[in-house]
Amino acid sequence: MPPVEDGAFAVWLARQAGDLLLALRDELGFDDPAGLRAAGDKRSHDLLMTELGRWRPADAVLSEEGVDDPARLTANRLWIIDPLDGTREFGEQGRADWAVHVALWRRTGESTGVLAAGAVGLPAQQRVLGSEPAAPYPPLSPEVAAGGPIRIATSRTRPPYFLAAVAEQVGAQLVPMGSAGAKIAAVVTGEVDAYIHGGGQYEWDSAAPVAVAAAAGLHTSRIDGSPLIYNQSDASLPDLLVCRRDLAADLLSAVSQHS
Question: Membrane-spanning residues where (predicted)?
Answer without folding.
Answer: none
